[in-house]
Amino acid sequence: xxxxxFLFNQNPHWLVNRLGTRHALPKxxxxxxxxxxxxxxxxxxxxxxxxxxxxxxxxxQSPFLTESQRLHLPCHRYSLIRxxxxxxxxxxxxxxxxVLPQATINIAKRKLSNLGTRPLGEVIFSYPNLVRLETDIxxxxxxxxxxxxxxxxxxxxxxxxxxxxxxxxxQPMLVSEFFMPDALRC
Length: 186
Known about the structure:
This protein has about 190 residues and is of the alpha+beta class. It has helices at about 20-25, 25-35, 40-45, 65-70, 100-105, 120-125, 145-150, 180-185, and strands spanning about 15, 50-60, 80-90, 90-100, 130-140, 160-170, 170-180. Strands 1-5-6-7-4-3-2 form a 7-stranded antiparallel beta sheet, sandwiched between helices.
């Protein structure tokens, strides 16, 4: 069976964002988790135009069960899974995983399936009808990351992130983003 993820050994345990969750997070993490705009743009505002994307994994496969549930997809329905590293001069800033169902790709006129090294945020935040529906939060231990990722990105301790359901014209996508220490310094 092919790997489901370049990033994870298993699906992270996500917590639904509830009233009061924000205050349980460190201040520097709060501003990233609750950032309403493009994280790529925020990184570029901090680090300049050299923020780049390295595609780590992109293929059609069934998402993790909780991802399918969050997107209201039947189990084992294939979606395009894309995992990337946003970095500046190979300094890791954000690890991201995007689940794009076929219907969402169709509504976006295939712009989302041919991103290459272009950041997802550049595309989705250009849609006037983009809606943020839900956000979950997690902090994961180092053991959840795969050995192949740890060979490329030095990860120590817990890493926190957010998982957001966006919709374009009512068609959902799921974007999970994990904040590396250098991102949190901005």
